[in-house]
Design a protein that fits this description.
The complex is a heterodimer of chains A (386) and B (54). With 386 residues, chain A is of the alpha/beta class. Chain A is built from ten helices and 26 strands. The longest helix of chain A has 15 residues. The relative contact order of chain A is 0.13. The chains are: A alpha/beta (386), B mainly beta (54).
Chain lengths: 386, 54
């Protein structure tokens, strides 16, 4: 029998394999990855710096060891150029490979905002371990860095580097930190604690030019002000990798479109993780990946299983002011209510039927995540109601 | 006393030390931690931890 082929070696790919091996030790598996395939902790990319961890220190298990432990055939440094769904094979830089079923765990690309100036191409982003290695190299000897984007990744990086002794400027066109995840009152809680660690906030504006200067770069912001910085990091969001699927004729929208069984428009091709749009939603976080991987592993092992997402809070790793949030949909009907105010906020989103459907916990309240989550319950997550 | 590691983020739970800040006393066995407990760093479930050698 042709193997199940998994493309990718991030958390999504390895979680599917790990879960599948708990159910079936023998079914042939082949993993194709364009990088080395080492298993590492992606959440740590944005909090490893202050801990003094280099890229090698983030690797939990090398690729060859993963292949041995989980009994799969590894093709690393392997580029997949096309999927031939009619003949059920993939074209790669290491030849043609047949599949019985194909799992796309391709990840996402950092969004690049077009910038003016003679150093616009010098903007960095961090989305994998190789990026992190380049970043650490580039940071040596610098004193000041600038981050475009005050969302989850931007805030985590800002806190991490500030804690490591860097002066950090954050530039974001929005009004306050973490704006896509929570109301203003909660997001503003991060301002003072991060400023105290060395973060300089610039909201309501954006970087428009990057030019080389004597000791780094001169940034020109849309409001006309200028910043001198040693390095510019872009953390403005991710775009699911859909090109391979699209070229193969699979249905795509923002991500590769899959149903609750993680099945694409081709019955033998599945997708999960940052590249996937599961029933209309792209959820580039750890918990949705773990749940999707578990369901997909069951399906691949022969027992068709739809993924059921429970309430999945997102933890923002900003030690200066930790945050846990269960975001609500943009169009959710209801209101935020505030409870605690000492040393952070505790806010709950109450829907039209008086049910709590989302929450934000910051500062000292962040440790109440499990208790809050219990009060939510699966059926109350607004995005999941049909 | 054993040590457990989160397979997602590498967070380590050491039974000897417990997690006093999460209300888990030093010496608490892995089996005695509630099933709905989640990794304080990345939020995944207790089931996503594996025992590691020390």
């Amino acid at each position: 029998m042709d193997p199940i082929v998994i493309i990718g070696s991030g958390l999504a790919a390895y979680s599917v394999i790990r879960e599948l091996r708990k159910l079936d030790r023998d079914i042939p598996l082949t993993l194709l990855t364009r990088d080395d395939g080492d298993y590492y902790s992606k959440p740590m990319l944005s909090n490893a710096f202050a801990q003094g961890k280099d890229a090698a220190g983030l690797i939990l298990t090398p690729a060859a060891e993963m292949a041995q432990q989980l009994n799969f055939t590894l093709h690393s440094r392997c580029e997949v150029s096309a999927i031939d769904s009619a003949r059920k094979c993939v074209h790669t830089s290491q030849g043609e490979l047949p599949y019985s079923r194909l799992v796309l765990a391709l990840g996402a690309d950092p969004i690049r905002i077009p910038l003016q100036g003679d150093a616009a191409e010098a903007v960095m982003s961090v989305n994998d371990i190789a990026d992190y290695a380049r970043l650490r190299e580039a940071m040596q000897g610098l004193k000041h860095i600038t981050i475009m984007g005050g969302g989850l990744i931007g805030c985590e990086f800002a806190n991490d580097w500030a804690a490591a002794g860097y002066a950090v400027s954050v530039v974001d066109p929005g009004a306050y930190p973490l704006a896509s995840l929570m109301p203003e009152q909660a997001g503003r809680q991060l301002l003072a604690p991060l400023a105290a660690t060395g973060v300089d906030w610039h909201f309501g504006t954006s970087v428009s030019r990057v030019d080389r200067a004597a000791d780094g770069y001169r940034l020109t912001l849309a409001d006309g002000s200028q910043l001198h910085t040693g390095l510019l990091l872009s953390a403005v969001g991710l775009r699911p990798r859909i090109a391979l699927a699209q070229a193969a004729g699979l249905a795509v929208d923002r991500g590769i479109k899959v149903d609750a069984h993680l099945r694409s428009s081709d019955a033998d091709i599945f997708a999960l993780g940052d590249c996937a749009e599961i029933e209309g939603r792209v959820q580039p976080f750890v918990l949705p990946i773990m749940h999707a991987a578990r369901a997909l592993a069951k399906t691949l092992a022969g027992s068709e299983t739809a993924v059921a997402f429970p309430a999945m809070p997102v933890v923002v790793k900003t030690p200066a002011h930790p945050v846990a949030v269960l975001p609500v949909a943009r169009d959710a009907v209801g209101a935020w209510q505030q409870h605690g105010t000492e040393g952070g906020v505790k806010m709950a989103f109450i829907d039209a039927a008086a049910r709590m459907t989302g929450f934000v916990l910051t500062g000292q309240h962040s440790s109440e995540r499990n208790e809050m989550n219990k009060q939510v319950g699966q059926v109350l997550v607004p995005q999941l109601q049909t | 006393m054993k040590v457990w590691q989160c397979v997602v983020c590498g967070f380590v739970y050491d039974e000897t030390k417990g997690l006093p800040e999460e209300g888990i006393a030093a010496g608490t066995k892995w089996n005695d931690i509630p099933e709905d407990w989640a990794c304080p760093d990345c939020g995944v479930a207790k089931a996503d931890f594996e025992m590691i050698e020390v």
